[in-house]
Amino acid sequence: MENLHVLGPETAKRTWKVILIGVGIFFFMFMSLFAGGGSVLQQNQGLQWNESIGDPSEYARKMIPADLLPLYMQAGAKYNIPWQVLAAIHMTETTFCKKGCPVSSAGAEGPMQFMPSTFAAYAVDGDGDGKADIQDVADAIFTAAHMLAEDGFNKNPRQAIYAYNHSDAYVNHVLGLAQQFSNGDIGGEVGSPLGEAKYQALMSEATKYEGRPYVWGGSNPSTGFDCSGLTQWVYGSIGIQLPRTAQQQYDAVQHISQAEAKPGDLIFFSGTYDTTDSVTHVGIYVGNGKMYDADDYGVGYHDLSGYWMQHLYGFGRVK
User: Fold this and answer.
1) In the chain, what are the domains?
2) What is the pLDDT of residues 142-199, one digit of tens each?
3) HEC string of the chain?
4) Which residue from 1, 77, 246, 295 puts its CA 20 to 30 A from 253's CA?
5) Which stretches make up the NlpC/P60 domain (predicted)?
């Protein structure tokens, strides 16, 4: 205060104005950087949805284990990655596995399916126990967030997710799940192109056989079902005739993008066994990251896991 008196009253007033303006600017910048609830689209310019990064959707609360949600949010906040994306990757890779997770045929390990060398390059001790463990779910989630950040998620989300798993179908699937985990509409999965009555009739017939084993060459309730035998039978029950094999069914339907897919459409895969056909498996797409099909685990609802997304061929709509 003594220095202000020496400067004179007018100078003192100007000095106080400068100080107050500076404090105001600092406060504004502080709030801009740290205020929560910002738009994902505003923070990550390439991301293809515009929802709050705050509260999870009803679908997220239903699907995501309650003890994992805080981990996604903490890791996301630390590395500026939408928590929905981390949850979507975890669901896609191992269906929220926490421990004892499978090792892929390529050697990827743990809840988030890292190659050991990749994990070592980005490893984070997420739970603070003094070590980064590829099999520890907290460490794996934080390491995934670190990797996405290092791969430029905030500049190009699609490219960063592609670096995690080199498949455009995988990227689309992760972003689609992330959208569903956000507040707001699930989007293109509302309704069925078959119409509600036919779709319900389709699934009513399909679920009669839930739990039955997969039978190669089976095409009716007496013989059991393989994948295309099941789809041929249940669509036939609502008056839609499909040819016999997965390849023939793909050739017979209208091809649509993943973004256009709705419950009641068909989902096709390739490379699931050795054959000259491009398409080797088919299921009924039911939305929310699931299909209803006959596979090695039997007839029923199955998650579109990392394995299936790696083999995704396309979607089709019956004509």
Assistant:
1) 42-181 (1.10.530.10), 196-317 (3.90.1720.10)
2) 999 999 999 999 999 999 999 999 987 788 778 878 877 875 333 334 468 998 788 8
3) CHHHHHHCHHHHHHHHHHHHHHHHHHHHHHHHHHCCCCEHHHHCCCCCCCCECCCCCHHHHHHCCCCCHHHHHHHHHHHCCCHHHHHHHHHHHHCCCCCCCCCCCCCCECCCCECHHHHHHHCCCCCCCCCCCCCCHHHHHHHHHHHHHHCCCCCCHHHHHHHHCCCHHHHHHHHHHHHHHCCCCCCCCCCCCCCHHHHHHHHHHHHHHCCCCECCCCEECCCEECHHHHHHHHHHCCCCCCCCCHHHHHHHCEEECHHHCCCCCEEEECCCCCCCCCCCEEEEEEECCEEEEEECCEEEEEECCHHHHHCEEEEEECC
4) 295
5) 196-319
